[in-house]
Automatic annotation (TrEMBL):
Spans traversing the lipid bilayer: 51-71, 78-99, 175-201, 240-265, 277-294, 301-319, 339-364
Main location: membrane
Protein name: AI-2E family transporter
PANTHER family named among the record's database cross-references: GAF DOMAIN-CONTAINING PROTEIN, SLR1143 PROTEIN
Record family assignment: Belongs to the autoinducer-2 exporter (AI-2E) (TC 2.A.86) family.
Source organism of this protein record: Falsigemmobacter faecalis
Entry GO CC: membrane
Amino acid sequence: MPQLPETSPDYRAGVEPPPAGGAPDMVRFAAGLLITALLITGLYVGREVLIPLAVAVLISFALSPLVSWLVKVGVKRVLAVIMVLLTVFLLMGGLGVLLGSQLRSLAQELPTYQETIREKVSNLSQQMRGPGILDGAMKTVDTLQKEVGQTVKDEEEPLPKVQVVPPPVSPIETAIAWLAPALEPLATAGIVIVFVFLILLDNSDLRDRLLRILGGNLHRATDALEEAGSRISRYLLMQLLVNVSYGIPMALGLWLIGVPGWILWGSLAAVMRFIPYVGPMLSAIFPLSLAFAVDPSWEMVLWTLALILVLELISNNIIEPLLYGTSTGLSALSLIAAATFWTALWGPLGLILSTPLTVCLLVLGRNLPQLSFLETILGSAPALDPPTRIYQRLLADDADEAIAISGAEIAATSVTDFYNDTGIEVLRRVSDDFSRYARAEHRLRVANGMDLMLDDLREDYPPPSPPTGSPLVVAVGGRWEIDAVACEMLAHALAFDGIAAEQRPAGVVTTRYVEKLGLEGVEIIFLSYFSADPSGAARNFCRRLRHRWPGVRIVLGLWNIPATRLEEIAAEDFGADEIVTSITEARLRIVRMLDTGDVPEIQIAQAPEDDTDRVIALRDTSVLQGHMREELDALAKRAADVFDVPFAVISAIDEEQEYIIGQSMELPGRRTRDGTDMITMPRNEAICDHVVAAGEALVVPDTDRDPRFSDHPAIRLWQTRFYAGVPVQTPDGHVLGALCLLDTSPRKFTEDEVELLGELAADVASAITGEEADAPEPISRSESGTMTLGQRVPD
């Protein structure tokens, strides 16, 4: 990378030089624009063929689940497709007959409404008649127009009249002229039906061809097709439910009001809502017009208008958010932009197809790295994560917005979770940019904004029972002001654990400064460092603290130390007692250090409220008799293979002990002597008791960073560094035990993987109880309030 001279203003401002290779980037950008233009041109030119194909694919998405269900119950695919299409035709035909009868009835009654319409129009014209402000001006314009017309007429010379006689038209040409407008939509409908039949018939072959076209990674292509199919099918189903939930109340309401043809207008309202934005407005015109024509007064019109407005409010604000949720994953802005784009390309049908087509583009952007910009543009997920959003608002000197984002995050989790997952990450980014990009103005904005944000958080979210007495923990920033901000977060978080803590200002580490800390009665001092290599400063600070305050235990918060470096160091290297890397770990470590019991209280999970009933349910399964070992071992082996971990175990916990009732491989440990040969451990040392107590999933990316597991006997015996467990529960909700994964090295675990592990746990529960069991909640909270313990350690 080219270097800027030290005299350059950009060098002093911390601006990096532009990367090399700008020309190839511009070439790729121009090529992308050209390809996009060609694609849009092809979509417009080929719309006569592409529109029927797109409509057929959309209908196939809606009908495919029915065909698949029939095939599963033993019907041949050809017969299943024919049965589904015939059913659809019969339903549409029956609805057409019903609506046709309604239309005929209305046509017969329309002449009787002429007098009502004439009377209302006459009354309106009389009310609007009378001298107005513009009457004089309008008379002047009329007079001028007459004079100009007369002048032109006088000046024109009479011309001989020429009459063009058209050639005679044959009966065949007349028939073609009449039939052509009707034949074109019929031909298009026939093409759509043929496409639908072929797509449903050769569904698997079509899927294979799409997989071949996508090419590359078969896993990614499979995920893309599954996601597109599920999103579009779910959208169509929800759209149908929304429209039916709108059309039926509309028909019943019109019937109560007395508007003729109420079945017709309810059905029309349901169908027209398939057209986004304009459909509901168009469907409202007909019942309003008929109410105007039927009732001599205005009462029926007002009641009909009120009915439509109430149904629109309920549908738009209650039913649609409830049913749709995140069924499409598209943002509101992208939906409107897509509707405009596809309508411009393909007309009214493009408006109907806009949402499914845009969903397909979103899925492509989600699964193909080359098109990832589509997910950013179209997706409903925030483009920036919460730490980045807060950091950017602070840089923009918008502390109020940063506080609002923080409040939204806390409302979804808790204060301590916010500090652990978001607050420290914001400070980490501030630290990374401090000397590379940030100007003095940026640093001042961030410092002032963080002060305001933490003051608001302490005021708006006080702990339920504020700790009293002298502080047991003192938190001190190691070097920069940003280190001290982390100490403020920790002090606030410890207050929720009932621990009195204070934050002391950072300063130059001298003998006089250490003396002024005043640590009488303090048991733990916490030192905060965001430096990637704080070895010298931290070691010097710890040495001076040991010399002046020998009875105080020291905890180092190394928020930004690389993971490789963390594996190589120990707290003793700095002269400290513990090293932590996250707010949650700091809280748990401090709670553990202040606990003086033989068995650390933090390692003992509280028994659930239904513990007695839970143990009875466990005994009723007879699984502790060991007769299901072979089957449960196979399920544990499957879990280990699926998640590619060294071993997995299935545990059951009664009132006194934990039993390993299934394992993917032989593990060391104390075993039962009754012939079942199961590993057992006391309940206060149970590896899965935290999962059983909470009834929720627990993921610990690194057990060395979690005091509940770092000193656990089984964790040390099995030499594991990763733990993930989900409850195994009966259909009645009693947690029998847990299915857990164990790895010898730290690893990450996504929410989708937690959900999949929950499905395997449901299979385990079904095998134990003999009843169909549901998977536990995929998003779960541990004792610390978060599914995972630690903040990520940056590379």
